[in-house]
Amino acid sequence: MEAGPRDREPTAPRAADDAPGLSPDGPEEETVTPEVEVELRPQRRLRIWQLAPIVALAAVGSLMFAFPLAFGTGDGGAVVAMLGLLISCCAAGWGMMAARRVGHTWPGLPPRSSGERPDWRVIALYVTMAAALVALAVWRVARLR
Q1: Are 141 and 78 in contact (CB under 8 A)?
Q2: Fewest 10 Å CB contacts: which of 18, 36, 71, 122?
Q3: 74-90 pLDDT, tens per residue?
């Protein structure tokens, strides 16, 4: 009678014993290839068709705001300057909303869906800077009259 499978001597070596770089604890450190992360989705960026109207509005608004302030052209200068300031602010807001839509944030603030709370000092700094700029612009336009 012939011996069963457990009674036979192994004729072929096991693959785990012959594999280079394997130990009972796992693969050896020298043979492990480094993992590379690859983003499958394309990076979200602002496109030229999104940026062009924002830049054009900002340029026109800045010129409308700057020329009456610099040259003080008559009684209508204050109205033109305030309209330029309004157009510039609209372009800035439009740009901020477009940047937020593609995932950009202001420096010092956490990403949109990270769950982190923004630091109150950074927000206070931004509010102070915006208030100072608005106060300077209104003061300058008021001096035109």
Answers
A1: yes
A2: 36
A3: 667 777 877 888 888 88
